[in-house]
Design goal:
With 70 residues, this protein is low in regular secondary structure. Helix content is 10%, strand content 11%. The longest helix is centred in the middle third of the chain and has 7 residues, at 22-28. 0% of the residues are buried.
């Protein structure tokens, strides 16, 4: 399974690009020109609910399957 890493969206002409570290490309066996699938997981800084379930006793159960990359 592919590791998740952070990258910044950078301008490229009138479009945008995301830089992939060389080490990540090598680990996945990718080279320039290869086609890949990208899942966008925006980084949000919302801590408004942080700590609200501190003493909650019922375990968390995910109601959706985790995404799988093929």
């Amino acid at each position: 399974m592919t590791d998740v890493f952070k990258s910044k969206i950078r301008p490229l002409g009138s479009s945008a690009c995301v830089l992939i570290p060389k080490e990540q490309l090598e680990a996945e066996g990718l080279k320039i020109g290869d086609e890949i699938d990208v899942a966008i997981l925006p980084h949000k800084k919302d801590f408004s609910g942080f700590g609200m379930a501190k003493n909650f006793k019922i375990p968390f159960i995910r109601d959706k399957k985790v995404r799988e990359f093929k």
